[in-house]
Every structure is written in structure tokens, then in C-alpha cells.
């Protein structure tokens, strides 16, 4: 192997699932892979420096990456200074790699527009981290072109694989399931449960149920509040925390809803944080209230710190992880059934510990980067070879 390199194309560098999954793989590949690589991002984000530390990193739209662009008005003075330091990031119109890449690795269907700008001649491998909501973020022509250009697909769960075959006529032999992965040993809290509770202004003897994600309808932030109301009506010692941010309008609506339903003393909202492990480790239960979620990394992170998971059926791939030993899967969007399971876990320390231990073992055995990344590398080489 060796020789010509790989161009990894990502939709952005935000602290969300697909970019984080790509970073996990590239860190492993930098140490273990055999080919040089570079990165092309549709937009920037908090993780830009992380990508640049691994490889030459390009942008498809410089106007979005620096002051004077369409997003400059959203930045604070500190943010403007940060973007100014990114001025060396190149525009894709001057993207001239020294040689044609051996492969274009497209991370996320949302990267379709960046691939359109490239018009790649090399084989395309597309790693799909989305279901229908993600596909709808991409204009149909660009989405269709990417699907036709792709020689091989990787699906992040069996649910995503079945979706590609059923809804987009992808041939079964052209799509392979490779579950998401995390560096399990690196998911470690920096603060104690007591410190987190103090930050959240929660009584030391209370229970904490945590959810994590961008505040939007897909992630079910509104369903999380319904769950909190149902559980708190039965357990006065239960508290809830949502970890993650969102668009200012969505955040404001969420905070208003907390007050409107009378949960201001029971539900905490942290906004975006870099160290989610602190909150996951401090929790008693992790609740995934998403209406649709292909295979969220945060569930694997919750498992890595030994937490039982409660999720809905038929919304994505996490039931494939939870199975019957790591938590509970309840009927589709059935809030009362989810509340029943959360209460049962709060009532049973033994059950929480047993399921949490099973989750920790499973994520270490099946979902560590060191176990998953070699499989992705093998698919890369197979795709380059045309097999």
C-alpha cells in the first residue's frame, strides 16, 4: 500500500456526531494508516484546530471561515480574532492537491455539496451517519449525484443500511455496516459527581437523568421535558439535565418551555460543553429521547462510564446496542413507557449497576476505535482496489 493519498471530506467541524466520528478515525489512521491524507470541510467549527493538527485542512467556502463572511455578525470579538487566525485556510477554488487522490472519503451525506464542487475523478467511499432527516438537509440533485458517484457505502448502523437499500435503491452488496466508535479509555470525567451536582445546584442526595445533543425536534428536547414531568410527578428526588446547545431561537424556546411547564427547579440546561463525560458519569440514567438518531456517539460515551440507557424503538440504531442487557428500549415515542423504565432504574441501584457494567463491557469490546478503525481501513483499501 502507500503512494497516493486520501481526501477526507467532512460537512463541518462542529462538536457533533459525524465530525467527531471522523476525528476519532483520523487520529487512529494518522498513527496506523499507510497513506497520506488531507481534509476538506464544508464549514468550520470548534474542532477546526483538531483537524488542522492532523493534516492539511481546506475549506469549501472561505467566506464562512473568516471575518467579513456571511457569519461574521454572529461572532464575538474573541470569535473574530479566532477566525482571523484561520485566515490561512484555503478556498476550495484554489484546492490543488499535488496529485490526484486515490480515494475521496465522504463523511456524511451532508457533505454532498462539497463533493459537487470537487467533481472527483477518484473512487468515492461515502460513510453515512444519517437517516431521513439528514438526507433532507441536502438538495435532491446534489444528494442524487453523490449516491450515483459512490462506489462503496459504509452505514453507521443496520438501521441506516436498511434505509439506504429501501429508500435510495443502494445495492445491498455496496453498503456495509460498521458501527460508530469512540476511544473508550479516553472517556473519563475530570470532576466528581459532587462537583457536577454543585454546578447544577442540585441536592447531593437527588437522582440525575441526563440527555445530550443539539436542541431541536429531531433530538426530542421537547420529549425530554415531557419525560421529566412524568418522572418528577412520581419521584420528588429526580432531577434532569440537558447537555448541549443549539440555535439561539431553539435554546430560548427550550428555556421558556422549562419555565412554562413548571420544571425550573428540576431541569438544568448546560449549553454546549467540551467535557460531556463529567455529566454522563455524574448521571444515574441516560435517556435518549430522539425522534430519529442513526447511532449517537453520546450513547457509547454514556456506556463507557457505565450508565444504563433508555431509548425509543424505531428511531435509529441504538436499540442494536442496548439489546436486552444495557438498558431498556420502549415503544416508539411512548413517553409514559420511558418514564416507567426510568423510575424502575431509579428504584433499583442493583439494576443500574448491572446494566451499566454490561454497557461498559460491550462498548469496550465492540465499539473502541482500535477495534473498528481497522475495518474501515480495510474497506478503504478494498474500494481503492476496485474490489
Task: Write up what this structure looks like.
Strand 9, helix 10 (248-260) and strand 10 form a beta-alpha-beta unit. Helix 4 (112-118) packs across helix 6 (140-149), helix 8 (193-199) crosses helix 11 and helix 12 (297-304) crosses helix 15 (349-366). It contains 16 helices and 13 strands. The protein has helices at 17-32, 48-54, 77-84, 112-118, 132-135, 140-149, 158-168, 193-199, 221-232, 248-260, 276-282, 297-304, 319-322, 335-347, 349-366, 369-385; strands at 6-10, 37-41, 57-59, 103-107, 124-128, 150-155, 175-177, 207-212, 238-243, 267-271, 285-287, 309-312, 327-330. Helices cover 42% and strands 16% of the residues. The chain has 2 domains: 6-181 and 368-385, Rossmann fold (3-Layer(aba) Sandwich); 184-366, Rossmann fold (3-Layer(aba) Sandwich), CATH 3.40.50.2000. The chain starts with 5 loop residues before the first strand and ends with a helix. It is of the alpha/beta class. It has a 7-stranded parallel beta sheet with strand order 3-2-1-4-5-6-7, with helices on both faces. The protein has a 6-stranded parallel beta sheet with strand order 10-9-8-11-12-13, with helices on both faces.
Amino acid at each position: 500500500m502507500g503512494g497516493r493519498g486520501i481526501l477526507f471530506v467532512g460537512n463541518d467541524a462542529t462538536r457533533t456526531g459525524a465530525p467527531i466520528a471522523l476525528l476519532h478515525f483520523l487520529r487512529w489512521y494518522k498513527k496506523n494508516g499507510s497513506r497520506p491524507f488531507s481534509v476538506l470541510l464544508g464549514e468550520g467549527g470548534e474542532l477546526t484546530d483538531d483537524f488542522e493538527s492532523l493534516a492539511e485542512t481546506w475549506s469549501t467556502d472561505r467566506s464562512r471561515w473568516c471575518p467579513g463572511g456571511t457569519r461574521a455578525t454572529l461572532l464575538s470579538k474573541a470569535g473574530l480574532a479566532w477566525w482571523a487566525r484561520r485566515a490561512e485556510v484555503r478556498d476550495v477554488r484554489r484546492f490543488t492537491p499535488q496529485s490526484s487522490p486515490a480515494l475521496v472519503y465522504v463523511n456524511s451525506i451532508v457533505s454532498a455539496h462539497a463533493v459537487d464542487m470537487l467533481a472527483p475523478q477518484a473512487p468515492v467511499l461515502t460513510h453515512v451517519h444519517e437517516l431521513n432527516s439528514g438526507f433532507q438537509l441536502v438538495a435532491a440533485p446534489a444528494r442524487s449525484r453523490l449516491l450515483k458517484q459512490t462506489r462503496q457505502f459504509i452505514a453507521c448502523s443496520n438501521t441506516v443500511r436498511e434505509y439506504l437499500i429501501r429508500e435510495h435503491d443502494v445495492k445491498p452488496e455496496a453498503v456495509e455496516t460498521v458501527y460508530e466508535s469512540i476511544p473508550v479509555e479516553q472517556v473519563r470525567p475530570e470532576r466528581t459527581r459532587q462537583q457536577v451536582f454543585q454546578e447544577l445546584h442540585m441536592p447531593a442526595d437527588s437522582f440525575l437523568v441526563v440527555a445530550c445533543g443539539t436542541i431541536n425536534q429531531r433530538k426530542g428536547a421537547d420529549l425530554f421535558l415531557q419525560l421529566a414531568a412524568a418522572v418528577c410527578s412520581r419521584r420528588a428526588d429526580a432531577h434532569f439535565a440537558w447537555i448541549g446547545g443549539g440555535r439561539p431561537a431553539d435554546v430560548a424556546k427550550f428555556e421558556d418551555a422549562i419555565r412554562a411547564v413548571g420544571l425550573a427547579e428540576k431541569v438544568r440546561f448546560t449549553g454546549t460543553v467540551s467535557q460531556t463525560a463529567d455529566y454522563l458519569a455524574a448521571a444515574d440514567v441516560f435517556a435518549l429521547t430522539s425522534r430519529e438518531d442513526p447511532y449517537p456517539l453520546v450513547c457509547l460515551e454514556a456506556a463507557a462510564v457505565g450508565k444504563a440507557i433508555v431509548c425509543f424503538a424505531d428511531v435509529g440504531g441504538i436499540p442494536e446496542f442496548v439489546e436486552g442487557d444495557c438498558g431498556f428500549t420502549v415503544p416508539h415515542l411512548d413517553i409514559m413507557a420511558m418514564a416507567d423504565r426510568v423510575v424502575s432504574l431509579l428504584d433499583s441501584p442493583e439494576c443500574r449497576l448491572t446494566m451499566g457494567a454490561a454497557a461498559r463491557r460491550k462498548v469496550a469490546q465492540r465499539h473502541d476505535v482500535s477495534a473498528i478503525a481497522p475495518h474501515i481501513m480495510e474497506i478503504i483499501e478494498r474500494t481503492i482496489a476496485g474490489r
